[in-house]
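Work Package 4 report. The design task specified in the project plan requires that, given a folded chain encoded as structure tokens, an amino acid be chosen for each position. We show below one input record used in the internal validation round.
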């Protein structure tokens, strides 16, 4: 091809170079290794872990950077498109050896010290001295930096990333950042771009960290009118924390300006239906994805209040989001009319977890509640059929405690072992193995769960009436 490749349009050249970089990545060592000692005192190489994705991209584009200036700039943009900055954890010790066969069984006692915040400091220095590199960043992820000082360094790094689209931050940034820091992060930039995706990852800290007075800082940036979430399209709030967790009040403040397309709230105990309703209400005309999966004792019972606080049920707010393409939500109870509106334009997968039916509570006690739930299943099938006539694929699953209902196929997935014992093997008359389990599509956790089977809804109702199975 020779010199002709340099005359190709940039878009075509970029496609060729990306294919070359991907090919290079397959020939690069993808794992890191260390040295450990065996019982006889000899050294052996051990596998430590995978090479970080951003480091792998940098190595795969190394040869491309040396061709010419244009290829160099492309390689830098390719390598720095995604950046992962982690706090260093662990410890290593020096060994005295010229080869693995002569490693001493007892290495030196001196631990090799590494500054745990070295990667953060070096990134800040690099972007300060070479600001053009920061302009290549599209997605950046920070992991393990929960202090006030590291939070300030993170904001200084973010201020230099003029093309940033996605950022993942520790939840403490919502406490330690000032209103100016957050206003700068969320603003529309001079080049017309703005941050579209924000993730705030929460974790539990050590007791010594939670009781440290220096960490008990909340600058309340969300109270300022300068902080505008209107440019964001996606918010992800995974995890929970024992230090100033994100709560309902934070979500209410965010909802004043947010017009989200995606909302993900998972693994939290501090956010209830109040915060969820606030965000879904203000973004109901734009929301396409809702994922709400709070922590609970067994994964299905969620003791949140049914009402949003003003008499409106969460179910009603969900129905008002008429353009959903993916819904996975946990409700305290499910409304009888949740699927009665045939005009909603839902598509894709819908998973609803609930403990009962609104107005009845638990399904275990009353036949009226069970009858109401059967009507919900009929409404669900009707909605699926209406969407199917419009060539819209809609798949709905309803989780009630340990039961999984698949209305489109009139199937129920559950552990039927007790029912088989009570009926002396006469019930159910038909069943087949199920790929689902008590934790949804992930199946079993390998503890004491029995394999799930699937039966028809009619078989389930018969078993319910005879006491072979319960909700």
């Amino acid at each position: 091809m020779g010199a002709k490749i340099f005359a190709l349009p940039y878009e075509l050249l970029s496609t060729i170079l990306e294919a070359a970089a991907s090919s290079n990545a397959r020939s690069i060592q993808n794992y890191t290794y260390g040295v450990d000692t065996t019982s006889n005192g000899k050294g052996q190489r051990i596998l430590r872990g995978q090479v970080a994705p951003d480091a792998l991209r940098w190595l795969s584009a190394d040869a491309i950077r040396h061709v010419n200036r244009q290829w160099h700039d492309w390689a830098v943009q390719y390598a720095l498109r995604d950046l992962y900055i982690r706090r260093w954890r662990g410890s290593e010790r020096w060994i005295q050896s010229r080869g693995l066969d002569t490693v001493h069984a007892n290495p030196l006692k001196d631990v090799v010290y590494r500054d745990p915040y070295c990667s953060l400091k070096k990134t800040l220095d690099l972007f300060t001295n070479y600001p053009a590199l920061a302009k290549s960043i599209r997605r950046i992820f920070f992991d393990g930096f929960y202090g006030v000082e590291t939070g300030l360094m993170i904001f200084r790094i973010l201020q230099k990333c003029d093309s940033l689209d996605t950022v993942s931050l520790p939840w403490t940034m919502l406490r330690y950042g000032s209103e100016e820091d957050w206003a700068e992060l969320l603003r529309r930039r001079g080049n017309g771009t703005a941050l579209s995706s924000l993730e705030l990852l929460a974790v539990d800290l050590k007791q010594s960290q939670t009781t440290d007075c220096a960490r008990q800082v909340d600058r309340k940036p969300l109270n300022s009118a300068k902080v505008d979430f209107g440019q964001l399209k996606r918010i992800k709030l995974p995890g929970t924390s024992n230090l100033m967790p994100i709560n309902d009040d934070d979500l209410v403040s965010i909802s004043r300006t947010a017009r989200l397309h995606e909302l993900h709230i998972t693994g939290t105990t501090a956010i209830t239906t109040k915060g969820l309703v606030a965000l879904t209400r203000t973004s109901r005309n734009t929301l396409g994805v809702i994922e709400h999966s709070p922590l609970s004792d067994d994964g299905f019972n969620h003791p949140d209040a049914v009402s949003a606080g003003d008499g409106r049920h969460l179910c009603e707010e969900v129905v008002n989001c008429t353009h959903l393409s993916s819904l996975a939500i946990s409700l305290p109870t499910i409304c009888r009319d949740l699927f009665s509106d045939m005009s909603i334009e839902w598509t894709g997968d819908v998973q609803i977890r609930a403990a009962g039916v609104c107005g009845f509570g638990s399904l275990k006690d009353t036949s009226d509640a069970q009858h109401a739930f059967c009507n919900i299943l009929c409404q669900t099938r009707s909605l699926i059929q209406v969407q199917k006539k419009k060539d819209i694929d809609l798949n709905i699953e309803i989780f009630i405690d340990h039961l999984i209902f698949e209305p489109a196929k009139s199937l129920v997935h559950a552990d039927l072992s007790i029912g088989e014992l009570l009926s002396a093997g006469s019930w159910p008359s038909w069943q087949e193995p199920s790929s689902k389990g008590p934790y949804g599509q992930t199946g079993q956790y390998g503890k004491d769960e029995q394999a799930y089977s699937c039966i028809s809804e009619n078989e389930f109702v018969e078993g319910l009436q005879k006491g072979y199975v319960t909700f």
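Residues 297-309, 440-447 have pLDDT under 50 and may be disordered. Validation will be extended to a larger panel in the next phase.
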